[in-house]
Amino acid sequence: MPELRRDPIQKRWVIIASERSRRPDDFPRAEPLRTGGFCPFCEGNESKTPPEITAIRNIRTSRDQPGWEVRVVPNKFPALQIEGALDRKGVGIYNRMNGVGAHEVIIETPQHDMNLADAPVDHVKKVLWMCRERLRDLLRDLRFKYILIFKNYGAAAGAALSHPHTQLIATPVTPLTLAEELTSAKEHYLDKERCLFCDLIQQELDSGDRIVIAGSQFIAMTPFASRFPFEIFIAPRYHNHSFAETSDDMLDQLALVLKEVLLRIKKCLIDPPYNFVVHTIPNVKARPRRATYWETLELDFHWHIELIPRLTQVAGFEWGTGFYINPTAPEEAAKYLREVKL
């Protein structure tokens, strides 16, 4: 029988449609991105991107020259513009402001076909290190209230180029999804004086049914109320509120877990398109700000990664209700992923 499950973080309901139960090989294979032709992200084509912001280099070369390992450039077609003032205004009942923000591309490798699942662990760490450093830098801009790190892999996940890359967008408002998570975390802490995420992680470790990887510093699991088949939640095993404050030692452990998760997803589901997003705390120094709004933030929030293979489509029922229909129970998904031979 189908089952309704409620997510305690987003407070949303999900339908686990067990009568539709689908195994990994039941999902259609996505069309790969076209890889032929010119690629502006490949080494040697540095002049074809906007001017470089920063890079990790393996030899002494100047900016916008070959010899890099991870490279960051502004998005050529940014969603938001870095220059200007916000100029907040009310327009009757509506609010508006200028589209000020930042939109950057982290080019993960000079090699066109070396994805994170196949990259050496030390290179995965370099990509994560660069994500953290760009986050730290943008948090200094007091116009920005939130910085989202995200990856689109495959055409069905929104990637326009097949060359491995991650993106980062800074916004002058806190996104609704994050606002919901922050509210749930704060309410739980005020009620119980504990972190909601820590409670959830401990319960999942005690059960074990939805655990994919239980590392010494990070856990990967399928959420109890998974919106999508084979959705993965990755988080520090112990309380940590900010990705920007994650240590280099922790990045070592995160690189191990993230690579293994991506490799298990790739082998289990035959290299599906996917998205992942990093949810961390907002910029508590941004202006304007409410004086006591983030008073318990370091104690109540727990940064994490949400990884979603794009195996099903969101349709009318989901848009009309906010419910999601998931044809693969998270317990089954975790079992399939654990059993993958690496």
Give me some keywords for this one.
342 residues, alpha+beta, 10-stranded antiparallel beta sheet, 3-stranded mixed beta sheet, 7 helices, 26% helix
SSE order and pairing:
Blueprint (H helix, E strand, L loop, with lengths): L2 E4 L6 E4 L37 E4 L10 E7 L14 E3 L2 E3 L5 E6 L13 H18 L7 E8 L11 E7 L4 H17 L3 H12 L3 E4 L3 E4 L10 E5 L11 H22 L4 E6 L17 H4 L3 E6 L6 H6 L2 E3 L3 H9 L4
Parallel strand pairs: 2-15
Antiparallel strand pairs: 1-2, 3-4, 4-7, 5-6, 7-9, 8-9, 8-13, 10-11, 11-12, 12-14, 13-14
CATH H-level superfamily: HIT-like
Write down the Rg.
Answer: 20 Å
Specify the oligomeric state.
single chain
Shape: globular
Main beta sheet strand tally, sense and closure: 10 strands, antiparallel
CATH architecture: 2-Layer Sandwich
Output the strand order for the largest sheet. Answer: 3-4-7-9-8-13-14-12-11-10
Unreliable residue runs: none
Number of domains: 1
What is the CATH C level class, in words?
Answer: Alpha Beta
Give the tally of β-strands. Answer: 15
Here the CATH topology equals: HIT family, subunit A
Distance between the termini: 34 Å
Q: Mean pLDDT, nearest integer?
A: 93
Residue share in helix: 25-40%
Structural class: alpha+beta
Order of helices and strands: EEEEEEEHEEHHEEEHEHEHEH
Beta fraction = 15-25%
Structure characterization notes:
The protein has 342 residues and is α+β, with helices and mostly antiparallel strands. Helix content is 26%, strand content 22%. The chain has a single domain (3-26, 39-338), classed as HIT family, subunit A, CATH 3.30.428.10. The strands form 3 sheets. It has a 10-stranded antiparallel beta sheet with strand order 3-4-7-9-8-13-14-12-11-10, with helices on both faces. It has a 3-stranded mixed beta sheet with strand order 1-2-15. The radius of gyration is 20 Å and the shape is globular.
